[in-house]
Design goal:
The complex is a heterotrimer of chains A (57), B (514) and C (414). With 57 residues, chain A is of the alpha+beta class. Chain A has 3 helices and 2 strands, in the order H-E-H-E-H. Classes of the chains: A alpha+beta (57), B alpha/beta (514), C alpha+beta (414). Chains B and C meet through loops of B and helix 6, helix 12 and strand 13 of C.
């Protein structure tokens, strides 16, 4: 298998930032390709629902 | 010249809206004329007047939309009519509400992403991180409070997939020049560094930068990685990667002492490493290790920086930071202004590693220090809010950050503590740290400036003098403007160092004869 | 294809059907003539199925009114006795391709709007909107309103419609959305546009002046006239969306004042219910929150197709009715994008830069984001015998969506 850790150090980073918007903003300032995900607790934290959603979306 | 039109049955639009669409369509290159209108009798006549007609237009009803194009070539006609849906949407307002809430939402936008950065509550980290790994992404996990069992599972899975998990509780990484989380703007260069502590990495990378060198990669591992429960999975992966990385010439590792078993394995690995390795295990006793030729042991970040730089220089010499003659003079002068009852040091830190390193340096100088995060459990404060004799407080500890912003982001808690410490007549010295860089407060000195002035004023009114010593961790390139921050401190009468170790050494000198 | 892909594909189809509806008003006819399965001695009502004993006061009052109106009883006591003995069958409108506002009651002799979805050939029905009997009032005055509708207004409209050969409703809907209607509680524009069209048709149909004039007066004076039509459109648009295997798109939201129920495309005609919530609203003089019944009516079919509170950001005029600020209204509308699958290509809101309305409520998104569909609605009294008492906003209970999600995962065996 190719070593993706070594690749990670050579490639351009493309980042999914989940949570603090500031982290995404600082990456944007560095002209890094980043998408901000405003993460929220899935299903308001309802575990049974989270398990079902995992399979359906 | 070419003519074409489409009819959309039963798609009624307001005429003002359609004028906007018409304008956008007419701006296409090669377009001579466009008409976007509802098929009323009057409008059909209009179309006929410009030479557009057909059976479909005759039978079109007032509720049908007609879009007609006259252009230089048939290709242009096709292009314009083909882009009609887009033109009809073009007025859509910029979406103000984020509609991306899940990793999958993010992946849909960036299918080629290679790294996920997680700052979500610890209890949700495992599930989201596992999904990211399954999708082939490496991880930077800032979140803390992730059970160690979950951390190990994630790291094992990542290792299997040859992916990297930086964290949980990872504050800083710099990968290929990109700072993630709390990081400074650092030149690129030959030094690769690995470490569990964010501020430790920030201090190392800033000092390398300020010495005129650069960093290839700084890889944060998360604060538990070198424990025996985790066994340094990320650290070993990072070592492998830096060893293979063509840009990296010297590898440094900055950490508190690892677990015993992990340390043994690390030493074995260091010995096999094809590149020089500098290790800095804060708070550890130097004589407890034995290294090979290419391995240099240090116990302060400054020494690690010196050792690393010497590896690319001519010839290694002894490495140990020292105070200059002028600094020693300054210490004696400062001490002379203290009132007789002023005897003690109080350190208030935003960076946990700085609290730790300072304790180590003071301890080596034979000064007994109390702390809420002590090097020696024997000196743990009963109440973190009540200092005792010489005390160093990690203001980033959970006690102070539960439901409140971290002191690196907001100076409120430190400001309050500066005031309460300066009311204690036995206090002679305040030791502070200021951390610049991405995501830190945009004006860390400014936030404490008034408190510093007031504290000094208060002690002076009591007939003494409060000596305030500070270190700044940052580079001139950082958004906070290092020079400005430093000048503000000096204007406030603060003695400033660009290294926490030096600031701590200076405190040793201050307290030497007390 | 794995299940996620199957769902995506099914939902694409659901959205295609939802956004290609082409509703045409084809008739105004006595319910018994046109509604399939509506038999004699039967009354249909709003919301999911419910037996007489569990019905709320307003719905019971409205049904008592219908029994008297049909002549099946002389007065309320006799009507109540018959209902208690089960002599009159009660079934949900939704089981008969029909919808009705508030208590939603439809009985055989009562004329209903008949809307055909020309894109799919199906028909749906809705009763007329008024402010008294459908809220539970059964006084002679309240029932006289139903009689005028049956004897004068509805037959006149029917004649005119037959003469004009039906009326396409999308043009009215599209224009009204751009004129500040949200098509649930604000129908000022749509009702006027509709009245204009019908006025010409009535003239052309040579209706006798003694019927034409009161009908024109009825059309001109009824601000919520179009609600009944909009609801029939909603039902006509959503019925073809039912029963798409693997689709997680909601095909109905309906309340009977006791239960709130939803249906989901991939789960056929099954209802998923939770207790009807309290409406957060404003009250007419003389009434307060203490008098209010729980959420009621099939009118949430409007939100099911993306109107009503989903579009409230484009209808600032409604705010005087439901309270709140224009900014809040925009937020509600934007928020609904989180739980829907698409925006409508032709139903657009100028206030939001001509953005399309949000359509295709996805139960997965509702549960995932914990954001429930918002509905703007009228409020009925908790006891029988009262007219409208207020209006406000209400969220669909998230429980319905969770139950549906559980049933979905069981049915599709994941």
């Amino acid at each position: 298998m190719e070593d993706k850790v070594e690749d990670l150090l050579q490639e351009e980073l493309v980042i999914i930032n989940m949570g603090l918007r500031g982290f995404a903003e600082s990456l944007e300032q560095q002209e890094v390709e980043v998408v901000q995900v405003d993460w929220i607790p899935p299903a308001g934290g309802d575990q049974e629902m989270i398990d079902i959603l995992e399979k359906l979306m | 010249m070419a003519i074409g039109f489409v009819i959309r049955k039963n798609q009624y639009y307001d005429s003002v809206f359609l004028m906007g669409v018409n304008k956008r369509l007419s701006q296409n290159k090669g377009v001579l004329q466009t008409a976007v209108l509802m098929a009323s009798e009057k409008n059909k006549q209009l179309l006929a007047d410009i030479g557009i007609y057909g059976d479909q237009i005759v039978t079109a009803k007032p509720n049908d939309l007609i879009v007609a194009v006259i252009a230089e070539t048939p290709q242009v006609v096709d292009t314009v009519l083909g882009g009609l849906d887009q033109a009809l949407l073009a007025l859509e307002e910029k979406v103000l509400v984020s509609l991306l809430h899940t990793l999958n939402d993010g992946l849909a936008k960036k299918p080629h992403a290679n790294l996920a950065v997680l700052t979500i509550p610890g209890e949700y980290v495992f599930r989201e991180a596992r999904k990211a790994l399954d999708a082939g992404l490496s991880l930077f996990i800032f979140s803390s409070n992730v059970p160690v069992e979950e951390e190990r599972k994630l790291k094992e899975l990542a290792a299997e997939k040859k992916l990297l998990v930086m964290g949980p509780d990872c504050g800083t990484s710099i990968l290929g020049g990109v700072g993630i989380g709390f990081s400074n703007i650092i030149n690129r260069g030959a030094f690769g560094v690995i470490g569990p502590s964010g501020t430790g990495l920030q201090e190392f990378t800033c000092q390398i930068h300020n010495a005129g060198f650069g960093i290839s990669h700084a890889i944060g591992t998360g604060s538990h990685d070198l424990s025996d429960e985790i066994g340094g999975i990320t650290s070993f992966q990072a070592l492998d990667a830096l060893e293979a990385d063509p840009q990296t010439k010297v590898i440094a590792i900055i950490a508190k002492p690892p677990g015993r078993k992990t340390l043994e394995r690390l030493i074995a690995r260091f010995k096999l490493c094809g590149k020089p390795v500098v290790s800095c295990f804060l708070g550890a006793r130097m004589d407890s290790f034995e290294g090979g030729e290419a391995l240099t042991w240090t116990t302060t970040i400054d020494d690690a920086v010196l050792a690393a730089i010497q590896h690319v220089g001519e010839k290694p010499t002894a490495i140990r930071i020292e105070l200059t003659h002028q600094e020693r003079e300054l210490a004696s002068k400062s001490r002379a202004d203290w009132a007789p009852e002023q005897r003690f040091l109080r350190g208030l830190f935003a960076g946990g590693t700085f609290c730790y390193q300072s304790q180590q340096i003071l301890g080596e100088a034979g000064i007994v220090v109390h702390s809420n995060a002590p090097l020696d459990p024997h000196y743990k404060l009963a109440d973190p809010d009540r200092s005792s004799e010489h005390t160093l407080i990690d203001m980033g500890d959970e006690t102070y950050t539960l439901g409140r912003p971290h002191p690196m982001i907001d100076g409120t808690t430190r400001r309050q503590r500066i005031m309460s410490e300066s009311r204690d007549p036995s206090v002679a010295v305040l030791l502070l740290d200021f951390i610049l860089g991405f995501n830190a407060s945009m004006d860390p000195v400014g936030e404490l400036y008034d408190a510093i002035l007031e504290a000094k004023q208060m002690v002076r009114q009591q007939g003494g003098e409060l000596t305030i010593v500070a270190s700044i961790c940052g580079t001139k390139e950082d958004p906070q403007e290092l020079d400005l921050q430093e000048r503000l401190l000096r204007e406030a009468g603060v003695i400033v160092f660009q290294s926490n170790a030096k600031a701590a050494l200076f405190c040793c000198q201050l307290l030497k004869h007390v | 294809m794995d299940i996620k892909q199957k769902i995506e594909k099914a939902n694409e189809e659901a959205v295609r059907r939802l956004t290609s509806g082409d509703p045409v008003l084809v008739d105004v006819a006595p319910a018994g003539e046109v509604i399939p399965g509506l038999e004699n001695k039967m009354i249909t009502h709003s919301g999911p199925p419910i037996e007489w004993g569990r019905m709320c006061g307003a719905q019971q009052g409205a049904i008592i009114g219908m029994v008297i109106y049909e002549g099946w009883a002389e007065g309320p006591e006799e009507a109540r006795a018959k209902l208690e003995k089960g002599e009159i069958r009660l079934e949900p409108n939704h089981h008969h391709h029909a919808v009705g506002p508030m208590a939603g009651t439809i009985s055989p002799s009562a004329p209903v709007w008949v809307v055909e979805n020309r894109a799919f050939g199906n028909r749906a029905f809705c009763r007329q909107v008024e402010g008294r009997q459908q809220f539970g009032e059964f006084s002679k005055d309240a029932l006289d309103g139903l009689r005028l509708w049956r004897d004068i207004w509805a037959p006149t409209l029917r004649e005119a419609l037959q003469k004009m050969g039906g009326l396409e409703l999308n043009p009215i809907i599209i224009q009204a959305l751009q004129m500040g209607d949200e098509l649930h509680n604000r129908h000022s524009a749509s009702s006027s546009l509709f009245a204009n069209r019908m006025a010409i048709a009535i003239s052309e149909a040579d209706v006798l002046k003694e019927r034409a004039l009161p009908t024109l007066q009825y059309l001109a004076g009824h601000n919520l006239l179009f609600l009944g039509l909009a609801m029939a459109c909603g039902k006509a648009i959503t019925d073809p969306v039912m029963d798409i295997e693997y689709s997680t798109i909601v095909t109905a939201m309906a309340r009977n004042g006791t239960d709130f129920g939803i249906r989901v495309s991939g789960l056929g005609d099954e209802w998923f219910t939770a207790p009807a919530p309290v409406v957060d609203g404003l009250f007419l003089p003389g009434y307060s929150a203490d008098d209010a019944g729980f959420d009621m009516g099939d009118s949430a079919i409007a939100e099911t197709v993306g109107w009503g509170a989903f579009t409230i950001g484009g209808a600032p005029g409604i705010l005087t009715l439901v309270g709140g600020t224009p900014e809040e209204a925009l937020e509600y509308t934007r928020e609904m994008r989180k739980i829907t699958s698409a925006t409508h290509p032709t139903y657009r809101m100028p206030a939001l830069g001509f953005a399309g309305t949000s359509v295709g409520i996805d139960i997965r998104k509702v549960v995932q984001t914990n954001v429930s569909p918002i509905i703007d609605t009228a409020i009925a009294h908790k006891d029988p015998g009262y007219p409208i008492i207020g209006a406000g906003l209400v969220r669909a209970p998230i429980e319905c969506f969770k139950q549906a999600l559980i049933a979905f995962s069981q049915k599709y065996n994941t």
